[in-house]
Design goal:
The chain has helices spanning 2-13, 26-41, 48-62, 78-97, 105-128, 144-166, 172-206. By secondary structure, the protein is mainly alpha-helical. The protein folds into three domains: 1-41, no CATH class; 48-96, no CATH class; 98-207, no CATH class. It starts with a helix and ends with a helix.
């Protein structure tokens, strides 16, 4: 899907009406293309662990935290500069891609509804063709609240914690993440309490 998005982006750029790179040199075009494609491919969740590990290792090595020592990302080695810039750019794009849980709850809930509408539609199609149903795409077994808890704890929160080392002014996203996490934890807790209560009532009735 990410490769498709990159291809479609440059299909648009090839149209003179949308060619934002028309005034750059051939060398600049190649560089811009490489940066854009790399950043798009970095949004593939299959690469999440690799990219965040790479960024954290670089930040730890350079002692970058709370916006300090950012100048150490830039040195005399042009190739190293390019790599450092691309690592940060990739993670910024990836962070934006997974940022919904960091938004105010009302906005986040709207996105959750739309995303799972898409997921469940995919699962319905897979089921109709007797294909294996992709993770989180089975409307009969997927627990949306638990899925969001896992998404926040294992993907979104660690991603923002890394980016905030570079841009500390966006730390308010962590407050939103915590509030939204509690919202879904409360849903799961309430459902489990209801289940336990119903189970206890059933035992009493049976006796």
């Amino acid at each position: 899907m990410e490769s498709y998005h990159a291809a479609e982006a440059f299909k648009l750029i090839c149209n003179p009406k949308y060619n934002i790179l028309e005034n750059v040199s051939e060398q600049e075009y190649r560089l811009a293309r490489k940066r854009i494609v790399d950043a798009i491919l970095a949004t593939d969740m299959a690469n999440h662990s690799k990219h965040i590990t790479h960024l954290n290792a670089k930040l730890d090595t350079l002692g970058i935290d709370k916006g300090n020592n950012l100048e150490l990302l830039i040195g005399d080695n042009l190739n190293k500069n390019y790599e450092n810039q691309q690592v940060v750019l990739n993670m910024l794009i990836h962070t934006a891609d997974v940022s919904n849980p960091g938004k105010p709850l009302k906005v986040y809930q709207n996105w959750v509804e739309l995303i799972f509408e898409e997921f469940f539609y995919q699962g319905d199609l897979e089921k109709s063709y007797n294909y294996p149903i992709s993770m989180l795409c089975d409307r009969e077994t997927t627990n949306i609240a638990k899925a969001q808890i896992g998404f926040i704890n294992f993907v979104v929160k660690p991603t923002f914690e890394s980016i905030i080392k570079i841009i500390p002014s966006i730390d308010f996203y962590l407050d939103n993440l915590q509030n939204n996490l509690k919202y879904y934890e409360d849903i799961v807790s309430e459902a489990e309490n209801t289940k336990r209560k119903e189970s206890k009532e059933n035992v009493i009735k049976a006796n």
